[in-house]
Amino acid sequence: MNRHHQILVRSYIGPKYGVDVEVRGEWAPLDSPTAVEEADINLKKAQTGAALVASGAIDGVDENERIRMDKKSGYTGIAAGLRAQPESPEDDSIAGGT
Question: In sequence order, what DSSP letters do the residues of the chain get, joined into one string?
């Protein structure tokens, strides 16, 4: 369909009005999830995230980033998580370690 519109614009509208127009089609979704379906999707994403954190595949900061970037999560406004900085060997000697 996009190709059809591009050809139409270039062969008819462009020459008639003396303009070079770029055509991009943006289609509305045919079926949007209901509130219940959206809640179910978010629950499954949360369960997947919890399982990944529990297994050590990702950490809490990664999960924080995922939900902050997911526009449908409901948590796009939360603060970014901070990764714990590893302690340096010097910290151990200062704290009385060997």
Answer: -HHHHHHHIIIIIHHHHT--------PPPSSPPPHHHHHHHHHHHHHHHHHHHHHTSS-HHHHHHHHHH-TTSS-TTSPPP-PPPPPPHHHHHHTT--
